[in-house]
Structure formats: C-alpha cells, structure tokens
C-alpha cells in the first residue's frame, strides 16, 4: 500500500474526474481497507452526487471485460436491495422483450439481499451460467439475448466485495451495476430502490452517454415499475432529462399490492417465471407487461405504454418468450 495516496474529502462534493480517479485507486487496490471504508461510509451519509456516481461508473467501466453487441441492444436491470423480495421481474422482462425482436444484453448477478437474483433464477431454469458467459456475444447475435454475469465481467469488484460485506450497508457500489453493462448499451430500463434519487441517478446515466433510457422507482421503494400505485420515472432522450409519473392505469393494467408478486428461493421464482411464460395470468404477468412496455419504449419499438403492453402480451401468448428460453438453454448445452 502507498500511504501517500489520498482520497478526496468525502464531506464535500467531488468533481467527476476526481471521483473517477479516486474509484480507480479503490478498484486497483491502491488503498488500505480502512481508508476505503471511511470514504464510502462518509459518501453514503452525505448522499452521492450525480458527478460522483458518473465518475465511479467510468472507473468501473474502464476495468470491465466488455463484449461486442448490436447497436440497438438494451438492458433491463435494477440496483436491487429494495427489501420487497419480489419475483424476478427484470429477468422475465428480458426474455419477453427479446422475444419481441429487441436484442437484450441482460446484466445481472446472484442475490445479495434477496433470495434469488437473476443468475440464481436463470440457473434454476436450466441455464448454464458458465456457458452463458462464454457464449454471450454469440447468443446475443444469434438469439437476441445474453446474460452478462457481473462476477465474470467485473473482476476488479472482487477486491471490493469483502469491504462491502464488512461495511454491511448500502454504498455507492450498490448503484453501479446498471451503469457498467459490459455490452456498453445506450438504451436501458433501470430500476432503483430510492424514488427521491431517480433524478440524480438519471443525470449520471445521461452524462454517461445514454441515448434513450428510463430510470424508474415505485413509490414504495421498488426497483422496478410497480403495480401498487405511482412510479417516479426519469426519461433520458436526446441529451435531455424529463421527470414524469407513471401508473399501471396508464398502461391499461390493474393496481395490485407488492405482496401479490412476493417471491421465494430460486426454484420457487423459476417455477413462477416458467408458468408466466406458459401463459399464466395474474399480478406477476401484469408487472412484467408494465416493465416490458417501458423497455419497448426506450428500444424504439413502441410509442405508448398500452402499445408496449399489447406487444409484450402477444410475445407471451404466442409462446415466443417461452420458446426463446428453451432455445437459449438448448444452445448452451450443445
């Protein structure tokens, strides 16, 4: 360790370039653990700025293992940590949207605070995660979908994991996943678990070059579009940011409590996802349709929430999303 290396004062806002340099030092193991812990906790307690989030994301992007992807590829990903333990909505949305013909570079990980993350549930469905990582570019090109296992594409984060566990609370790194997609997507549906933070996070995403994205948060702190009532939505398009409110009724869907899509372990969530793809109706389907509509809008596939719901429902009801999952699993076994 080099004692002379100093982090900026986290009690005051840090400029983007300075933040990028600081997080580069952290990710490269140039500082001792105690200094990193103090820095991250102080930053969290003050509240991260858009410039700090942008700088941290740039440092993480510079150290990731990227893949090549179609120019129109999108990602559907949440920050997690909302504490609601719902079924895997964004994973299901990824399959449905890809079945609509939009390439989806799904970035995800195993569960950190829930019982089943995207990786856990896909594995329970029969997807070989190692093969998925090895063939990501190929399946994205051939099938229109891939799973980018965060642990495989962000080796620098291995240095940070013990520190995050020692801190035992949310830090800026909980916000980083959706901002560092290895496919370098510029169109995203990003869920965060803090409604008040939506415009700050969206400003960071805009600075990072987003072409068209929604940053979303349910009023109850859900890191996806919620059926329970209102949702904070920031739209980034053409270098501009606009805030709006979106409700299930805007998409022609019924209101339902968050408890209606409460999930379980990986096996439980995988079974629910498979039943959804086989046509089962209910709140889980509606939650997937609502979020899929948002993804289809940012992909440029549809213009309205209702049109998005209709196209997503058709992909399910015609068996396209289920067939895509089966093809994906089979391709990885070949």
Automatic annotation (TrEMBL):
Residues 72-321 form the Glycosyl transferase family domain. GO terms for cellular component: cytosol. Gene3D superfamilies: Nucleoside phosphorylase/phosphoribosyltransferase catalytic domain, Transferase, Pyrimidine Nucleoside Phosphorylase, Chain C. Transmembrane segments: none annotated. Pathway: Amino-acid biosynthesis; L-tryptophan biosynthesis; L-tryptophan from chorismate: step 2/5. Binds 2 magnesium ions per monomer. Its cofactor is Mg(2+). It catalyses: N-(5-phospho-beta-D-ribosyl)anthranilate + diphosphate = 5-phospho-alpha-D-ribose 1-diphosphate + anthranilate. Residues 15-63 form the Glycosyl transferase family 3 N-terminal domain. Keywords: Amino-acid biosynthesis, Aromatic amino acid biosynthesis, Glycosyltransferase, Magnesium, Metal-binding, Transferase, Tryptophan biosynthesis. Anthranilate 1 binds at residues 78, 109. Anthranilate 2 binds at residue 164. Mg(2+) 1 binds at residues 90, 224. InterPro entries: Anthranilate_Pribosyl_Tfrase (IPR005940), Glycosyl_Trfase_fam3 (IPR000312), Glycosyl_Trfase_fam3_N_dom (IPR017459), Glycosyl_Trfase_fam3_N_dom_sf (IPR036320), Nuc_phospho_transferase (IPR035902). Mg(2+) 2 binds at residues 223-224. GO terms for biological process: L-tryptophan biosynthetic process. One of its GO terms (molecular function) is anthranilate phosphoribosyltransferase activity. The keyword Metal-binding applies. 5-phospho-alpha-D-ribose 1-diphosphate binds at residues 78, 81-82, 86, 88-91, 106-114, 118. Its EC number is 2.4.2.18. Homodimer. In the C-terminal section; belongs to the anthranilate phosphoribosyltransferase family. Belongs to the anthranilate phosphoribosyltransferase family. Catalyzes the transfer of the phosphoribosyl group of 5-phosphorylribose-1-pyrophosphate (PRPP) to anthranilate to yield N-(5'-phosphoribosyl)-anthranilate (PRA). This is Anthranilate phosphoribosyltransferase. It comes from Novosphingobium lindaniclasticum LE124. The lineage of its organism: Bacteria, Pseudomonadati, Pseudomonadota, Alphaproteobacteria, Sphingomonadales.
